[in-house]
Amino acid sequence: MKGAVLYGPGDVRFEELDDPKILKPTDAIIQIVAACVCGSDLWDYRGINPVTQPTPMGHEYCGIVEEVGSAVKSVKPGQFVIGSFFASDNTCAICHDGYQSSCVHREFVGGAQATRLRVPLADGTLVATPDLPPDDLIPSLLTLSDVMGTGWFAADAANVKPGKTVVVVGDGAVGLCAVIAAKQMGAERIIIMSRNPARQKLAREFGATDIVPDRGDEGVARIKDLTDGLGAHSVLECVGTQEAMMQAIRSARPGGYVSYVGVPHGVELDGQELFFAHVHLHGGPAPVRRFLPEMIDLVWNRKINPGKVFDLRLPLDQVAEGYRAMSERRAIKALLIP
Amino acid sequence: MKGAVLYGPGDVRFEELDDPKILKPTDAIIQIVAACVCGSDLWDYRGINPVTQPTPMGHEYCGIVEEVGSAVKSVKPGQFVIGSFFASDNTCAICHDGYQSSCVHREFVGGAQATRLRVPLADGTLVATPDLPPDDLIPSLLTLSDVMGTGWFAADAANVKPGKTVVVVGDGAVGLCAVIAAKQMGAERIIIMSRNPARQKLAREFGATDIVPDRGDEGVARIKDLTDGLGAHSVLECVGTQEAMMQAIRSARPGGYVSYVGVPHGVELDGQELFFAHVHLHGGPAPVRRFLPEMIDLVWNRKINPGKVFDLRLPLDQVAEGYRAMSERRAIKALLIP
To answer: What mean pLDDT do residues B82-103 have?
Structure first.
């Protein structure tokens, strides 16, 4: 089979790889129908996370089951499935509490920017669609694997509720998907912090009611202006930098909720500021598996269309261009079709 | 009147002060029936928070209303009342959400280690007992003003629920009161981290089921041993140091809850560690006012006895000895009777 391999900063190659095989009775092999490039892939691509050896890339996937191990019961060859970037048993105490991305048996699923993929713990990781999907639903179904699932977690972790005011910090694909989630959860007002006209437009289409282009202290002051001086009920930090995190914490009202769903890079929180901010803080790797059934239902019934975050569609063999376009911010998110 | 004034590190004096007066129509003047020394007073007493001018001390109080301003409706002279260390209007949006200690009109109530005290925003701050209390209830009623209210918030903010496993980090008066709160909220297992035999004994009396004397990595390992390797559902950090905070975060399971209720001193949180810990984090100055009615009811009906945290009882004019005894850890908490 063929797949994307990162050799070093800026150096993604599409090359011949060994075919995946069933290694454990709980594995499944799927034929990738669509994959994509994640914002978090760019930390590696840009050399911010050092790459020490050639690394098969990609962790967002959907596809057709080709083969399953002898212990797999819930999915079967021929089904269209979506899974999370963390494989989970979905039976341990942590999974039971809805934190499948911290499952005691979790395994990272890497190498999804390829024609085929081995998924461990298939029963606890993969969810099948009701039927084979029509082509136009495939981009949206793919987003559920990570970007939409992560946006959903951002809204869930920030306790978004009907009638509340929500701020989304970050207009990347996760932030845009977080707008979709906040809208679904009934938020009355959804403020996105964005300076990019194309992303602002998509945010409005997804349900944003206000746009704040200011950042830092000015951005915070603008949010206070929009919320009777109090701050928002829920603030969703979808970037992972110190500036974004502090902007999020300072934009929330006392007793409010701040979520953070992008891996923090260089973020340090001052205990005393956090104490007097009086906010709830929750985040981490999104437990996508928890939300998959509900999200699949919403996409299947065309209630949400997160596939619109893909503004670049490429054949999988042009994966390197997908990385370049996203790294240069020419594209929000690149869809890759084998 | 007379009251305690801090002049500098280790220098508390009991001296003649101006009588408090009604300054605003929303004020009340109360005659202090009992006051005490707070763990947080020790930050000033030890010079860790610099004292720049002679400062009247004390923020935990209960007493008899002497006089009220013309706008005060809910309390009247002759009633026995308890209030929080932050005065609140109890009507703003933040109070409505239960965060009275971040009320938009909040004022810190200082100078309670005295014979009389002015309490601002009396209607939103003070809660009267059903009747004049018997003497033996006074210590417990006094704790509701801060230490028990703060322990209650620790348990509430860490989402303590029936059947869950709770860890309390810190065996000071707040930690011990947090044990009482966790027990009231139905925790099945309450583990306190303590090395002090007298405090361990009191913790057991309050409802602790397990004692862990180890600290740091060893303490965390011991908690994991006691929780099937997963960590606790709820961890209540009742100290305010970096060591205690990290011990708390690392003792919680993914998806678990960590609260912190002591003003953090020198605490810095690494964003990436917090992200992968996958915990909920919430804390800040305890919104005591939210819990006062329920806590008064529990004390009044002798369901809880937090007054036991006072292991030193002094006449108010010996307040300096109260500070010394607590600073030297000879006493858990000093009760002061005018």
So the answer is: 98
Which tens digits make up the pLDDT trace of B217-260?
999 999 999 999 999 999 999 999 999 999 999 999 999 999 99
Nearest CB to A280: which of B245, B274, B280? B280
Query: How far apart (Å, rounded) are the C-alpha atoms in residues A146 and A36?
Result: 10
Flag whether residue A91 sits within 8 Å of chain B, measured between CB atoms: no
State whether residue A50 is helix, strand or coil.
coil
* Contacts B266 to A, Cβ<8 Å: 271
Measured between alpha carbons, how far is B307 from B138 in angstroms, rounded to an integer? Answer: 8
User: H or E stretch including A4?
Assistant: strand A2-8
Task: Check A278 against B98: CB less than 8 A apart.
Answer: no
Sort out which chain B residues have CB atoms less than 8 A from A240's CB and list them: 271
- Residue A117 and residue A30 in contact, taking contact as beta carbons nearer than 8 Å: yes
Q: How many CB atoms lie within 10 A of CB B314?
A: 19
* CB contact at 8 A, B21 and B11: no
pLDDT of B300: 98
Q: How close is the nearest chain A Cα to the Cα of B257, in Å? A: 9
Inter-chain CB pairs, A–B, below 8 Å: 121
The alpha carbons of chain A give a radius of gyration, in whole angstroms, of 19
**What does the pLDDT look like over A267-301, one tens digit per residue?**
999 999 999 999 999 999 999 999 999 999 999 99
Sign of the alpha-carbon dihedral angle for A101, B253, B276, A106: negative
Domains of chain A and CATH, by start = 2-146+287-337 (3.90.180.10), 148-283 (3.40.50.720)
A284 touches chain B (CB under 8 A): yes
Assess A273–B contact: CB distance below 8 Å, yes or no. no
Nearest CA in chain B to A259: B280
Instruction: Write down the ipTM of this complex.
Output: 0.96
Q: How many whole angstroms separate alpha carbon A166 and alpha carbon A295? A: 20
* B51 — pLDDT class (breaks 50, 70, 90): confident
| CB-based contact, A163 to chain B, within 8 Å | no
